[in-house]
Amino acid sequence: xxxxxxxxxxxxxxxxxxxxLQREGLFREMKARRAYEKPSEKRCRExxxxxxxxxxxxxxxxxxxxxxxxxxxxxxxxxxxxG
Length: 83
Fold this sequence. Notes:
Elements: H1 10-24, H2 26-32, H3 39-65
């Protein structure tokens, strides 16, 4: 993986690198490989993740079709005037 450093701005390059690693799923894989996971536990975990994904997709679809209300929107707060 490669990240360009522009104008000696290392902080920005680190943020970009971290975002790329996050998208690739490298952090999740490192966390999973810290300790051995039995195959049965892995299957159980993956099955649970699949169930959560399916529920989330069904909820999104129901919201799009209007069967359930969407997420609540935060009310906009007017900026305060200083004076």
